[in-house]
Amino acid sequence: MKTPNDTGNTLRQFILNGIPGLEHAHIWISFPFFSMYLIGMVGNCGLLYIIWTEEALHRPMYYFLSMLSMTDIVMGTSTMPKAFCIFWLDVKEIDFNSCLVQMYFVHTFTGMESGVLMLMALDRFLAICYPLRYATILTSPIIVKAGMITFLRGAVLILPFPFLVRNMQYCGTNIIAHTYCDHMAVVKLSCSSIRLDAIYGLTAALLIGGFDIFCITVSYFMILKAVVGLSSKEARSKAFGTCTAHICAITISYTPAFFTFFAHRFGGHNVAPHVHIIMANLYLLLPPMMNPIVYGVKTKEIRESVLRLFHGGKIMVSHSH
């Protein structure tokens, strides 16, 4: 509840109301959410451990997969513990500054997720289109620099959001119909003009998501062109096979992301609030849960490493791209 002093810029806290219209079912909704979060954390930590300990997996593709796993861990952990406090303990209050920090982490690391998927597409492009130069192009220093640039891009472009939100006037309710401090959900509570914030939000989305999708599309167009040109059906099948897990990861990540983005800005009253909030949570839960599973099932080297892990010892795998 707002206190009489919580007006204008002196707002001290927000109330995260959970999933609107389904408050009575919070405890039941929490079980699949917690299961997804737990599977995601165990899966990604396991994937990082396998890549770290298996020397045969110390290759560019798996370095990028490590970045994806670390991003997924932070992305889920920045929101889910607070969501479970809402579901299980009915603790809905969140400090104003804590809300801004959570907002920053959510949007920075969802941007990082998109960026890593783009880097992985470029990795597949180089592996298939320039196999002889692959190892000399993607050296360890280049991979580290690419990861740092991708992280800094999101960190810098998202940085203005908390400051823009902080300088707004809040003279109405402080109740956020959400499980976490999503940028647009907070902005909509303001009684100030949100024009600048909306324009910058679209700009940042284009500079991050738009740029990444463009690079992914171009990479796969070039991959398709190169694969179609191969004379052997077996070679074509093998080349496409190396991309299968990545294509699944792209689909899993971008589908709920697109739904959430467009529902917030253009959905209006066409999307039921509870559907929107559930999808916004799946946006942060589904990729961390599914990425380790997809790569574990689709990637032979990881499958063999997992089997060897349970039987002890190390494993030798082929160095094909």
- Counting helices, strands and paired strands, the structural category is mainly alpha
Helical percentage: over 70%
The outline comes out as globular
Can you summarize the main beta sheet? 3 strands, mixed
Low-confidence parts: 1-8, 314-321
Distance between the termini: 57 Å
Strand order of the largest sheet: 2-1-3
Encode the helix/strand succession as letters.
Answer: EHHHEHHHHEHHHHH
Number of H/I helices: 12
3D structure, described in words:
- The structure is a single chain.
- By secondary structure, the chain is mainly alpha-helical.
- The protein has helices at residues 26-53, 60-77, 80-89, 96-129, 134-137, 140-158, 160-166, 183-187, 195-228, 233-267, 273-298, 300-311; strands at 13-16, 93-95, 175-176.
- It has a 3-stranded mixed β-sheet with strand order 2-1-3.
- It starts with 12 loop residues before the first strand and ends in a 10-residue tail after the last helix.
- Mean pLDDT is 85; it is low at 1-8 and 314-321.
